[in-house]
Amino acid sequence: MKIDIRKLLLIIFLIALLFNGFVAELIMWISLATMVIISRHDIKIQIGNKGYNIAVFFILYYVILYILQISTGNYDTAQAIRLYGLTKNICAPALMLLAFGTVCKDGFSVRFVMWMLTIFNLFYIGAILNPHYHDVISYQMGSLNGGSGISVVLLPTALYYLKYPDKSNVPKRVNISVLFVFTTLFFVAISGSTTSQLLLLFEFFIYITLKIRMNKKILMRFLILVLIGASLVSLIIASGKLSLNPDGLKTRVGIWTRAYSYFINQEKFCVIFGTGDDIVQMITKSLEAHNVFIEIMLIYGVTGLSFFIYSLYRVSKKIFTFQKANIRYLAACILSYVTICSLHPFYTGLTTFQSVSLISIMFLLFNTKNKLTI
User: Fold this and answer.
1) Residue 281, strand partner residues
2) Which of 50, 96, 289, 374 is at 20 to 30 A from 61, Cα to Cα?
3) pLDDT surpassing 90 at residue 87
4) CA triplet 350, 230, 154: central angle to 5 degrees?
C-alpha cells in the first residue's frame, strides 16, 4: 500500500497537538516545515503566486513584529512565551494554508478530524454522565468549553460533507459525518456550556439568513458587519463606554476592562506596536484577555489589530466569490470561529482548537469550482 507522505504528516501534526512540551512542539514544526517545502508547487497552483507570496509575507510580518518587541522590550520568560504563542497562532492560518491546503482539498483531513473529534465527544459525554471521571477528562483533554467549542466550529463543515459527499465510499463517509453530528449535538446539549449552546443557535441563524434569496452584496455586507461588529463591541465594552457589570459574560467584562485599561496606559510605542503580552492580572491570578481582538491589540497594538481587522474584511469579501452552495457553510464556520475566539482564550498558541478550525475552513475553501485567490 502506497503511503501518502502529506497525509501522514498531517496525522502526525494533529496527534502532536494533543501533547505538551518541547518534543511535541518540535514535531509540529517539522511537520509544517516539511509540508510547506514539498507542497509549495501545488499550493501555488491552487492559490497563485500572488496568494502564496501574501501568505509568506503575513508570516514574516508577525515574525518581524515579534523580533521588534523582544529587542526593545523588557519581558520575562513567561511573557516571551505568551508573545511567541500568539505570534505562532496568528501565523497559523498562513502556515496551515501553505502546509495542508492540498490535503484538505480531497476531504481526507476533514474525515480524520471528524473521527478524532467523535472520539473526543464520546469521552466528554462519558465524563459528564459519570462525574467521577469529570476532573480527569477535563485535565487531560481540556475544559468542556474547549471540547464543545471545537466540535461546534466543525459542525457546518460536517453538514456540508453530508450534503455534498465524495463520490467514492459514500456510505462510510456519510456514516462518520452522521456520528459526529449526533455526538456533537448531544455533547453540547448536556455540557452546560452556554457559549456552545448559543453558538449553535447562531450558526442556525446564519444558515437560514444566508439561505434567503438576497442580493450577494447585501449578504456580504451583513457578514462583514457581524465580523467587524464583534471587534467593535468587544472594544466598546472593554473601554467602559458601555457600562456593564464586571461579572457579566461570566466575568469576561471585568477581564476585558482590566486589559484595556492596562493597554491604554502604556507608552506610545506599546500602544502602536503592543505590550508584548496578553496576560491580565485579576486579583489573585493571571488570565489571558479572553478575546482575540483585545489579545492582538495588547500584544501587537493598533498596528496588529488594524491589520487583523483588514484581513477579516478581505476574507469576508472573498467568500462571496464562491459558488452559492458553499457560502452558507463557510460563512457559518468562519463566523462561529471568530465568535468563540472573542469569548475564550483558545486563540493563543497553535492549539487543537485553532488547527481543527482552520482545517474545516480550508476544506470548505478548496471544495469550490472557483480558484482560491487571496
Assistant:
1) 286
2) 289
3) no
4) 45
